[in-house]
Amino acid sequence: MATYGSDQLAALADPSRRAIVEALRAGPRAVGELAADLPISRPAVSQHLKVLKEAGLVADRAEGTKRLYRLEPDGIAAVRAYLDRMWSDALKSFAELAERTEEEPS
């Protein structure tokens, strides 16, 4: 289990993994399909998918001789929740600073 979204964020730090996640937004795809659209090799795509799977961002299932990868809603939700908390905290801090600035004498 990731702590505070750190495993998911670390997995998304790599541009190739972000591109894979973007590609999977359209629906499940096999490694070969993903590799055909990316400037990296099929084995590299497999390695990136392994990292994304370990981080809980993608899941796979067998379909015949292929493995289809899809986004894992719980993993994506964990990243979103983490970013939402960060954004909310930043907005709260900004609002507090703005209120203090308004209260200070000119």
Give an account of the 3D structure:
The protein is α+β, with helices and mostly antiparallel strands and 106 residues long. The protein has a single domain (4-103), classed as Winged helix-like DNA-binding domain superfamily/Winged helix DNA-binding domain (Arc Repressor Mutant, subunit A). Helix content is 62%, strand content 13%. It has helices at residues 6-11, 15-24, 31-36, 42-54, 73-103; strands spanning 29-30, 58-63, 66-71. A 3-stranded antiparallel beta sheet has the order 1-3-2. A hairpin with a 2-residue loop joins β2 and β3 (66-71). The longest helix is centred in the C-terminal third of the chain and has 31 residues, at 73-103. The radius of gyration is 19 Å and the shape is elongated. The mean pLDDT is 89.
Major sheet: size, sense and barrel closure? Answer: 3 strands, antiparallel
Biggest sheet: strand arrangement: 1-3-2
SS class: alpha+beta
Please give the domain count.
1
Helix content: 55-70%
Apparent shape: elongated
Instruction: Output the number of helix runs.
Output: 5
Strand content: 5-15%
- According to DSSP, the number of beta strands is 3
**In CATH terms, what is the fold-level topology?**
Arc Repressor Mutant, subunit A
Kindly report the name of the CATH homologous superfamily: Winged helix-like DNA-binding domain superfamily/Winged helix DNA-binding domain
Describe the oligomeric state of these chains in a short phrase: single chain
- Please give the alpha-carbon distance between the first and last residues: 50 Å
User: Overall mean pLDDT score?
Assistant: 89
Order of helices and strands: HHEHHEEH
- The CATH architecture can be given as Orthogonal Bundle
- CATH class category label: Mainly Alpha
Low-confidence stretches: none
Indicate the radius of gyration in whole angstroms. 19 Å
